[in-house]
Amino acid sequence: MSGTSAVNNQANNEEITMFKDMVLRFIDQEILPNYEQWEKDHHMPREVWHTMGSAGMLLVDMPEKYGTADASFDVCQMIQEEMCRLGLHSLATGYNIHANIVAPYLLNIGTEEQKDYWLPKMATGEVLTALAMTEPNAGSDVAGMKTNAVRDGDSYILNGSKVFITNGNQADMIIVCAKTDPKAGAKGVSLFLVDTTLPGFSTGKPIHKIGQHSSDTGELFFENMRIPANALLGEEGRGFVYLMQELPRERLGCAVQAIGHAQGALDLTIDYVTQRKAFGQTVGQFQNTRFKLAECQTELEMCRALLEKHMDKFSREEMTVTDAAMLKLAATEMQVKMVNECLQLFGGYGYTDEYPISRFYRDARVQTIYAGSSEIMKEVIARGMLGR
């Protein structure tokens, strides 16, 4: 490592430490006292986003001119990791969409006018955002989507529906994927910055899930919704290209959450097995417990090493779609397996709401499904190896 690299790395570590202290104080004061109730209510108040914005936690790695901290990309990932480590997966999932996915779409693809209008409001929490790609009959099959946008003078007329949209019911602006050329397959997809206050937009009932209860997950409807032509994000017909360009960061964020969440589950389990007694000794003294936890720790550290490798590649703009697929596949499958092993060591108590490990178990399951299922990740990896 060169001297310059060492200096930069030290500065980055100091920045992360400073932000981490702030994030942990914020979570302790503003989130943890209320989180259990939000989970029971299956609802997180919209004001939470204003509070996070006031604390400087939103869009931390966006340029300073948008009213943000202009911190490193690593800081944004650290915030998600800490949320998940503390069992706040619902919050982390919404945060990932707003700050780690939608904001980079705008920064990398948007016009100066679009960035100047939306990013400052997103940084304060005045505007909450979502990304709407999945449809009732088209998830990873982007070419099969039915939502369409037809040019009409200085507007587009948007029709269709989306489902399983994180932040969907509360979002003020949504990046919507829609067909502008129905005959062109994936090459006919475009992206739009949709202001949800415009006529023609509506939502269904909030979708209740087996986990991540307080995460807002919605069904969206667009009925002859007239949106201005300048709501087009990037160029018409290049939506699929943009999705492929931005998906690696989304999947990297899922891996970060997986590793934070797995670490949190492991911490809870170590604490439990060193206190819980059975047959005259602590559960942690049984060989099975020790071997299971040793395996968990090893798999976690292997995934952490893979994450660090690919975060470094991402920072150099060298991370590929295949890299992201391998990372998400490895980290989220590890997360689901590890949380399952941890819950088992709690015995019957692990299956009760009284013990947080049960929520860790429920919240982890969707990680191998959204942002591209494990099966899709395997296909992406295989294509990189063997072609179509």
From TrEMBL:
Its cofactor is FAD. Keywords: Branched-chain amino acid catabolism, FAD, Flavoprotein, Oxidoreductase. The keyword Flavoprotein applies. GO terms for molecular function: acyl-CoA dehydrogenase activity; flavin adenine dinucleotide binding. GO terms for biological process: branched-chain amino acid catabolic process. Belongs to the acyl-CoA dehydrogenase family. PANTHER family: ACYL-COA DEHYDROGENASE (PTHR43884), ISOVALERYL-COA DEHYDROGENASE, MITOCHONDRIAL-RELATED (PTHR43884:SF12). This is Acyl-CoA dehydrogenase. It comes from Alteromonas hispanica. The lineage of its organism: Bacteria, Pseudomonadati, Pseudomonadota, Gammaproteobacteria, Alteromonadales.
